[in-house]
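When time allows, look over one protein, given below as sequence and tokens. The question is which stretches look regular and which look disordered:
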Amino acid sequence: MRLAPFHRANAERHWNPGFHCGCEGVFVMDLLIVTIMGVGFAAVVFFVGRIACPPRDRVPLTQVDRVILWTTLCRGWMALGQLGPLTRIVDDRREGTA
């Protein structure tokens, strides 16, 4: 397809060699929201794990390294998991009744 000189210059000026769909800003904002929610959830799990740790075994926050961080996150995840899922709620209705 042949373009008129004006259209050819306009197309070359706005041509982007990469993928461009016009929605990159929306993706970045969604990614930012998910990141903030993930960091907040990880912070809650960390502090639950820190509270679940016996006081005599707690390390000061300034001395927390990678291993202690993962151990505390696992301890918090296990403590939250002990609360149990909502599917364990027993339905008291008898079979055949509405």
Remarks:
- Residues 25-84 form one domain.
